[in-house]
Design goal:
Length: 208
């Protein structure tokens, strides 16, 4: 049986302020009197006390002062650390057994998989920049895109397009160095693990 890895990331990337409290409580409930985990580290009582203090601080911070939010963040950081330490205990105790891990309330890390072709970019916009020869080129964010590939080319009389290629982790890019008064065409594609590209419709415009 293939061993599983216990998920130990309880940061804002994965859990909102409310969600991390709910998740922590669910883990405590499932691990309490669980015969698979007889000597949890840290102690469940310590984590439960942290959750109680964090929940109170969270409620106060919703309409409170900046100091209240700082206190809330401090309690959250402590809770994240305790849950991470507990996940390490679960990993060692379970020896990677998915059934035992599931009984603890913890999740397992998902295996990375190959993502197929991404969606065709939508809401593609080419907007003139503040300086001559510059444009802002953007599209809507594409789910699962690791980065974006932007291309542009000057429109010539012979119809041959010599594409200039640029990449960015963001779905908005400032392009400069264009010739004012010339006509250009633009296209963009989201990029992931799949080598194929689904390009947007081309936008052709004169650059100011």
């Amino acid at each position: 049986m293939e061993k599983q890895k216990v998920s130990s990331d309880f940061s804002y990337k994965n859990y909102t302020d409310t969600e991390v409290s709910v998740k922590g409580t669910n883990i405590l409930d499932k691990m309490t009197d669980n015969p698979n985990f007889t000597t949890p580290i840290p102690a469940l009582a310590d984590i439960r006390a942290t959750i109680s203090s964090y929940t109170a601080a969270l409620a106060k911070a919703e309409k409170g002062s900046q100091d209240d939010r700082v206190i809330k963040n401090s309690w959250r950081a402590k809770l994240e650390d305790q849950l991470k330490d507990l996940s390490m205990y679960v990993q060692l105790t379970s020896k990677g057994d998915a059934v035992i891990i599931s009984s603890s309330g913890f999740d397992t890390n998902k295996k990375p998989g190959t993502v197929g072709p991404l969606y065709k970019p939508e809401n593609v916009v080419v907007k003139m920049g503040d300086n001559k020869g510059t444009v802002w080129f953007s599209c809507d964010a594409i789910d699962r895109a690791a980065f974006y590939e932007f291309e542009y080319a000057e429109v010539t009389a012979d119809g041959v397009l010599n594409w200039v290629h640029k990449t960015s982790t963001k779905h908005k890019l400032l392009i400069d160095g264009l010739t004012s008064g010339k006509q250009y065409t633009f296209r963009v594609a989201g990029a992931g693990t799949d080598p194929s590209r689904v390009w947007s419709d081309q936008i052709t415009t004169f650059v100011i």
